[in-house]
Design goal:
Blueprint: H1 2-7, H2 15-31, E1 40-43, H3 49-54, E2 61-65, H4 68-81, E3 86-90, E4 103-109, H5 118-127, E5 129-140, H6 160-169, E6 173-185, E7 192-202
Length: 204
Amino acid sequence: MSQFDAKAATWDADPVKVARAAAVAEAIRSRVPLSRQTRAMEFGSGTGLLSFFLQPGVGQLTLMDSSEGMLAVAERKIVDGRFDNMRTLRLDLAADPLPSQRFNLIYSLMTAHHVSDTARLLQDLNALLEPGGQLCIADLDAEDGSFHGVGFDGHNGFERAHLGRLAQEAGFTEVAFSTVFRMTRGEGTSARNYPIFMMYCRKP
C-alpha cells in the first residue's frame, strides 16, 4: 500500500474526491437511519474524507485502513477537529485477524476494487456487522481498464448483478443498487464518464 502512503499528504486537495465523498455520504444518509447509537466503520478509509461528512450523525466511528500514511493524516484531522467519537485502526483484512468489535454500519468508497478476493471481503464485512447491521459499498461500475490504466492489478469495476450475488452468498439480504456519482476523466472528445454505484444490503 506504499502508493497510498505517498499520496496521503495531498489526497484531500483534490476537489473531485471531496465532491465524491460528499455525494456518497448523502446517499448513505438518505438510505440508512443514523443516530448517536450508531457504531460505524469505514473500510479502506484513507484520510477519512467520507467519514468526516458522516461523523456528526453517528456515535462511535472507526476508520480502518492498511495505509499508515493515510491514517496519519486522518489522525491529525481527528485531533485538530477534537472529534472524540472517531478513532483509527490499521488493519489489512487480507492478512490480519478480524477485530473483536462489531458494528451497526460498515461502508466503503472506491476500496473494494483494490481487494482481489471480493467474496472473502464480503464474508469478512458480514462477520463484522451486528445482526440487522447495514453495509454500503460505493465503487466503480465495470469498465474497460482505462480508469486506472496499464499495470493496475485490481478489478476494473464491478458488474452490479455479479456483486449482488456475491453479497447474497456472503449472507446479506435486501441487496439494492443506485448510481451516486459520476467521474469524468480526459477532456473534449477523449473525455470518459465513470459511474459510481452504491450497493446497499443488510445482515439478517
